[in-house]
Amino acid sequence: MTESSTALQQVASDIKSWAGELGFQQCGITDTDLTLAESRLHAWLGNGYHGDMEYMSRHGVKRSRPGELEPGTLRVISVSMNYLPDKQEDLLALTQEPAQAFISRYALGRDYHKLLRKRLQQLADRITSAHGKFGYRVFVDSAPVLEKPIAEKAGLGWIGKHSNLISRNAGSWFFLGELYVDLPLPIDDPAEEHCGSCSECIDICPTQAIVEPFVVDARRCISYLTIELHEAIPLELRKQIGNRIYGCDDCQAVCPWNRFSQSTGEEDFLPRHELDKKTLLELFSWSEETFLKRTEGSAIRRIGYQRWQRNLAVALGNSSGGSEVISSLQRALADASLLVKEHIEWALSNLGSD
What pLDDT score was predicted for residue 236? Predict the structure, then answer.
């Protein structure tokens, strides 16, 4: 591929145009200097805020140095894709429905990894077809990549006080993906932070996981507790989980910038098996076979049946109770694993039925 300045400008322009045609709402290009993000990552890890996510430190500096993860990388193409099924849905109201199961909106549809990876590969193929062969590697939350700092430097948005990326034009309900390339493409201006004095995300967090602006202690975050944590959920945090059985969207739901968000146009991200309408009791009644069938192709499957039951037991313990809930929990005790049994017993105790 020719590397004249004019040619590279054209490549960058084409990339952004093609990204839009492939369904990405935003596309930006940045260099590989993540020095500031690296120092912040080390401080976060040093405080133990990553909890059991040892993979966050497993690869050393490769996470913050793209050229060491993928030798030859000169630029990173960062893209975003909206996933919110229904912009008009009142998510905070749903968390106040004790019988309803709340699942983070990103996980209601098909697993996003394959869709974004396929689209990024198509983008790489278009670049190759139009401008010649080049070195690249596709990433979609699948390797040690600092996707949010990269996206911030590429101009897609800024990292908010809740640690999610926020766009002035698109809010924060979107997935990110990256294309590491060996092309010295022109780079975009980084985004500026526009949170100002707003503290709504900090104030709303059920477990007060945002320990200071822009810093999240994952060990207290409901998304971590219901998805990443393999062991028992700490006793002192179970009541705050409420009816959230997979992730938590509260901090995004209150963000003023999400008035600019848009509902997704991707059918794959729309709710499957009516998971946005299920009750806790119905989901708790699923056998492992049913769980595996209904979560096929879903991000939810990654937690496995035992953690699924664990989360549901906690949520049922936070519900309004009643004879049906208590009976369902008691019936499940006989065949429950030790992990699930502990949480069922807690739920029964919390409902006043030991």
Answer: 98
Domains in the chain: ranges and CATH: 5-86+109-181 (3.40.109), 212-350 (no CATH)
Residues catalogued as catalytic = 141
Tell me the pTM: 0.95
- pLDDT (tens digit per residue) in 162-201: 999 999 999 999 999 999 999 999 999 999 999 999 999 9
| 154-183 b/e (C-beta count within 10 Å ≥ 16 → b) | bbbbbbbbbbbbbbeebbbbbbbbbbbbbb
Per-residue confidence (pLDDT) for residue 270, from 0 to 100: 97
Check the annotation: does 165 bind a ligand. Answer: yes
Cβ burial of 354 (10 Å; 0-12, 13-18, 19+) is exposed
What is the per-residue DSSP string for 92-123? Answer: HHHTT-TTB-EE-GGGSSS-HHHHHHHHHHHH
27 annotated as belonging to a binding site for a ligand: no
| Residue 116 counted as an annotated binding residue | no
Composition of the chain by helix, strand, coil, percent to 5: 45, 10, 40
